[in-house]
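To close the section, here is one more complete example, presented without commentary so you can practise reading it yourself. The ligand is NDP.
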Amino acid sequence: MQLFSIFGNPIAHSRSPLMHNSVFKHLNYKACYTRTLLKDSSKLKETFFKLKLSGANVTVPHKEAAFKACDEVRGFAKKIGVVNTLINENGKLIGYNTDADGFLFAIGEFKNIKNILIIGAGGTAKALAIRFLEEEINVSVLNRSTKRLAYFKEFGCKISSWDDFKIASYDLVVNTTSAGLEDDSLPAPKELLEEILNNTRYAADAIYGKVTPFLQLASKHKLTYKDGADMLLGQGVLANELFTNSKLEKEQIKFYMKKSFKL
Ligand code: NDP
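Output:
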């Protein structure tokens, strides 16, 4: 029996155990997926091996620490320094990132996306920004503090903090901050967000399972919007393929993961 887990803080809200266990159960794959509250990022690797895990997912606020903890990082994760999926490969910790492709899957129905504003500058923002740039989409990044913005500038994103933000026209605005995850806060001052939402066609939030204050505002502005559920599904399917070493069919993984959303 293989054991998998998700590491984060907070972690009680995570739907990943339900999603992965639904796949394992219905496809008779001998594995179980749990959740682990991890307070100290520096204990990630040690905890992973102590729990004898075959693989794991990593969420807020440990994704950058997960990158550092890996013995080897593969694919897109290497480019961005952010890991959300860990695999135990013969006692070595291998890191991947499935968030960005998960998000692209999620916004597939939003057409003609050429200009995106990302709110937030953490691990998720990095993954999305670099992936959007690969798709030749113009990316602007808005964050409450300036420290993390330099990274984005290097890659050619337009950057601003709340103080020096100048409005432009966007196709999509994405909240990648954790504002609204556990509280009812907005990811930026309300006046700023109202101006932004008046100048975009679509809005999306990485947070799932609730209509965040940001999405409530988007709804008030009559925008088409979506929460992070499809992103969660997309990244989960790709992570499950890694966990099961592509032994299960992708469409089946997707089907049973989606089914777990209705529980
Ligand atoms: P990080 O901790 O790496 O980054 C958080 C970012 O949010 C930082 O830029 C931080 O700003 C900003 N921030 C935090 N709190 C506030 C606030 N109250 N107001 C304004 N800005 C704030 O987090 P991640 O990138 O890993 O995750 C972000 C969110 O995305 C989480 O809510 C997570 O649950 C969600 N997520 C959902 C996924 C899905 O599948 N649906 C996948 C991945 C993530 P500063 O730099 O100033 O500290």
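Once you have examined the tokens, check your reading against these statements. Residues 59-61, 63, 99, 102, 120-125, 143-145, 148, 176-179, 181, 185, 187, 206-208, 228, 231-232, 235 surround NDP (CB under 6 Å). The longest helix spans residues 229-243.
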